[in-house]
Amino acid sequence: MVLTKNSVWKITRLEGVENGVYRVLEIFKDLDAVVLFPLEHTRPIKPLLTKLSSFHRTIKLGTTTKEDFALPIYMQVDELDIPHKQKAKRDKNLQIIERIIKDKDFLFEYCISKRSDLLVKYAQNISEHRNTVDRLLQLYWKYGQDKNALLPAYANSGGAGKERKATVPLGAPKRSRTLAVVRSRKYILTEKDKEKIKKSLKKHYLKEGGDSLVETYKKFLRKYFASEVKIAEALEQFPHAPSLRQFAYWKSKLISKDVEIQARTSVRDYLLNKRGTTGSATERSPIPGDVFEIDATVADVHIVSTFSNQRVLGRPTIYSIVDRATRMIVGFHVSLYFASWRAARQALVNCFLPKQEYCSQYGIHISEAEWPCHHIPEELVCDNGEMIGLQPEEHLVPFTQLSFAPPYRPDRKSFVERRFDILNKKAIHPLLGATRRGKVVRGEIDPRKLAIYTLHEVTQLLIEAVLEHNRDILKRLAFETPLLIEKDLAPTPINCWKVNVELQRHSLIEANYDDVISRLLPPEMVSMTGDGILYNGMYFTNKRIIEDDLASIARDKGWWQLEARIDENSSNYIYVRFNSREPFVKCNLSPKSRMFRDLPIVESDFVLDWTDEKSEKMIVTAESIDMQHRTDAITKRAKNRAKDNPTPRKDRSKGIQQNRKEELELMNGKDTTQVSKSVKDHDIVENNNVVTLPRRNKRAQDV
């Protein structure tokens, strides 16, 4: 198992170290030492220094294992959403400790010294209290050596979710819109009042066909505040009683929404009209990490839509991230968007997270050892295109240092540029619809007319090419990494990566999964509806929606918006935050949107555009116009016939069964003499070959 800086471990039976959860702050390979910081202590504590070899031994024995450590919610926030005042406070805190957190010698000496003289001396030099510096260091080390660990934890302030016992009226006072009117004073509810509200709700509101909330409130006042209402009316004053707003508020606090929905309807009506419809009736169905280089290029092939191979979508954009030391392609993304921050952030997410799930989305099943890249570099080199600006800087600087290559100098990031050439020649140029970098002979067919591959298929081919590249022999690596010769390994990027990582010769930093999702994936707003979570015409669901009956609540009470993060590589899932104090959770594609399964998000955009196009073209059809004319003619003829043969309304509903019988006999061609015996001659009127049917005389039982 790989030991990386910033990783979290659960340690047991390591000599000189108390059992518990620790974060790796620094690795001193030359000194056979590793610095650990305990994460379970609430009081201030110094980092520990222990032997690296002993640590590795406990990992092999299985007494030390990888552990997850959740970051505070206030750290899992988009940089743009952090208020300016909190950013300023964070940056001020960072300035206090910036010099010592970058000094490895300080960290080493601070660990081995019994007293904290170094810290006291540093605090005196910057005119800060020693406790302040110590507290900031504790936060920085505990929460992943990230500057956002120094944000003020306002999310934990105020006792959110705890019920307050009021002794004075809460909230803003009631204000009249004009000075001519005086408003009533606020009522402070007691525990007894809340019990009375709950009893009234159960008796009048929470039952099938129960009263409305307003009527329930009135009955509540009549029963429990009758004397107060009578005295106030006699004195022409306001009754001192809970308001309707207070009553409604405590209804929502005392009675959960799912209980309210089920209690106010029958089981049949609930199952028919109000339960969540998340299912489907048809369901069957140099060293590594020092520098990474990132760049984008337009692929040399035209692609078509998954749903219509007649729709050519143009050439996709390929983003690649390459480790400069090993030539390993560590990040990858194919998109219909042009080179932009929106597409680049997807490549960075792919770079920082494990690749197994990403490859499985495209039907390529690999083990972690086949593409073991899910780390943050110390430096990220890019050009001055999409990566220059406030957004990339605010999102990426918390992770790594950004460096920009000079304009028109691709040689300053030649490794990633060379990977593009290799991928195009190996995977793209043999395809139908390939442009081969514009090398088209005059008279040849336009590549756009030959395009047959979808975005999903091109991505599959490129992933295979990336995996093959990482296994290719690059002779130059043997001259740059003697370890390959020492270990008798073929000079391939993946072997070069592995041998350096195993011997702790790297600068890789392990990323926190939730941190990457919340900061780098594109933020969107989605809707919680009765059919599930709606985004871009697709529905998503997860266990939380079913357990909390959120779809049923949305169907009965109305939809609401949720914050989400979208992975544009796949429509199979999105990440949704159900509450501002909770992390993002994965929501999978609902069966009713299964047509988008295993497709990129952009295909849903195509379907929405296609439906808009068709609806705009065929608002009213020629057939519907003709149908309307025929319908109007039939209606007019029927009205005229009724006008020519008026019948009193009271007689129209009498003798229906006999009329029906006689009509059937006439339609079947039987002898109608018996039927028309009592019919007078003048009842049959001939006019232009139209004969009215005989009408029978009224019978005694019909009168």
TrEMBL record:
The annotated regions of Basic and acidic residues compositional bias extend over: 632-664
In this chain the Integrase catalytic domain maps to 284-490
Q: Which PROSITE patterns does the record cross-reference, listed alphabetically?
A: INTEGRASE (PS50994)
Q: Which GO terms describe its biological process?
A: DNA integration
**Coiled coil regions in record:** none
Task: Using the UniProt annotation, give all residue ranges assigned to the region (Disordered).
Answer: 632-682
The source's superkingdom equals Bacteria
GO MF terms here are: nucleic acid binding
Q: What is this protein called?
A: Integrase catalytic domain-containing protein
Q: Please give the organism.
A: Vibrio diazotrophicus
